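anyone else get weird line breaks when pasting these?? whatever heres mine. first is seq + tokens for prot A
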Amino acid sequence: MSEHSTLAKELFKKGYSCSQSIVLAFCDETGLESETALKISSSFGGGMGRLREVCGAVSGMFMVVGMLDGYSDPLDRTAKAEHYKLIQSLATKFKDENQSIICRELLGLSVEKESYIPEERTEDYYKKRPCSELVEYAAILLDEHIQNKKLEGNKMMKVAVASENGMVTEHFGHCEGFMIFDIENNQILKSETIANPGHRPGFLPNFLADCGVNVIISGGMGGGAVEIFNKRNIEVIVGAKGNAKDTVEAYLQGALKTTGSICHEHQHHDECGD
């Protein structure tokens, strides 16, 4: 049990709705003022205004994640997809533990919706409903996510840049070499350059993976190379330009996004490293 989960459960037992209990409990993480947190989450209690749809604890969890890790650029499909992936993952974990994320199913109700008038919070109310435990579990999932994110931010990683004379090269497969940057706590510790060992189909992605690379940055790249990197769980950033170290720093700041610059034309097929 975490401090946030204990607080969220206590808040629910004080009379706050399930969604309010979650969002209010995590104000220290989101930076929201208490009154703002309570107001923006007030519509989601009772499965959204007692409609008994998505559980308010789940909605509150999603709201907190949105404030912490949401996207803001409407054209950034990659960021949108990553966020939806996170939301679906949290929903799956909640459902695996509680068999549903739908309020009426969690409460064992047969009606589609109930009166908009909330029930009085009595001792019997808390005994017959699992809501306080659901709030507690949603907060535990949130704490696990926040902790994992902090651990990820502190871990070591290697970022490789297909380069030539310290600049990002246009074609992955025929680059002069790879600048390898060691990262810790989101900071560059050191870098080294390794010569391109020679291009042949499927070789370079596996070579870099065996070197411990977690991210590859290049100007362009063939679809076959991208597929191999994906299979090796290596993030691919293509469409990059400019100084290699600057692009890595931009990546660490979240300012470097892939453009999807995959080479399909025959004359580039070999050059870009399929």
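and prot B, same format (seq, then tokens)
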Amino acid sequence: MGYGDALMATGEVLILKKKFPNAKFVIGDGKRSFWSEMFENNPDIVRAGDIKKFDKIIWIYNYEKNRPYRIYNEKIEEKNYIWNKKYKATKGIIYFSSDEIKFAESIYKKILEVSENKKIILIEPNRKNDRKNIKGWENRDWGFAKWQKVVDSLKDQYVFLQTSFGNQPKLKGVINLHNINFRYTCSIMSRVDLFLGTEGGLPHAAAALEKKAVVIFGGWIDPKITGYDFHSNLYIDNDISPCGSKYSCEHCKECMEKISVESVIEEINSVFNKT
């Protein structure tokens, strides 16, 4: 289960918890639970093996062949995902461990020493296009050079923080934290002022942490489906969008090209000018 999928599932739990306050929830297919590290420390989500320990169990059917934001039809989705336009993501929740909280606090204190009271932006320029099981990943790639131009233009106004892993390229002019896993990245995000990146797991984490975000969607999927209204979502709405192509797509490439460095800079400044 991807991080974004898991965080959206925690959002479903929050909604159902209001109706069934005494229930525990299992994420899976009705027989097997599908665990994610994003469920760690969550008092409301349990594994299938622990069902007998509780009086009230509710299954949330969210798994690889049953994502709530997709419509499954093998005859028509050979080349494209079909999006469920009736679905709307609800912000989830993350329960941090004491070690994660302490780590974020230590990083935050170090950043404050050099930030000169500037706003802190967590930036994610890399796409995980090496994940062979996720088709169409490259259609959400804005281009590393554009991210660098954003940093070059704004590094005197804001402090940029990047977490990288493995051989991912590193931006210049940012504070780089190398080999930080997703949960620890989220814990750091809890202390920054803004998230900046493309549609994926981290925008869902930003929503769960109630953080402002500028998110580049392009034309692959509509932010009305997997985005959040309190984020600034850059989306190119045309006759083909949201195409959901499983393969490298000229439409998606063109949509990403239409989102300029200047428009992203404008959105960032606009977010902070509103506060």
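btw re prot B: Residues 98-273 form a domain with the Rossmann fold fold (CATH 3.40.50.2000). Helices lie at 3-19, 98-115, 144-154, 182-189, 201-208, 223-226, 250-258, 261-273.
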